[in-house]
Amino acid sequence: MKDIDQLLAQLASLPVDPRLGGIDDAVMEGLEAARQPVLSRAGLGAVVALAMGVGLLAASLPASPAYAGSPYPLGVPHDLAPSTLLGEVR
To answer: In a designed cystine with 77, which of 12, 19, 30, 81 is the match (CB 3.0 to 4.6 A)?
Structure first.
């Protein structure tokens, strides 16, 4: 098995790949493409207007009445429950 230093020295002596000369242009083109907006300004405005319309419509509809649940989720406490025995004596 070859020593890693020998392998790295052989790799350093190889000529540079010619495709690396154009890598800067390809990266810059990719960055420019990523900066392009997905929606146009008109499309974005239409989405905002639709969202505002749906929000106003939902806010104008009457809400159904809300009813509170039981304050005792495990049932009504008994008079001799430990929590009632620790209270003040009357």
So the answer is: 81
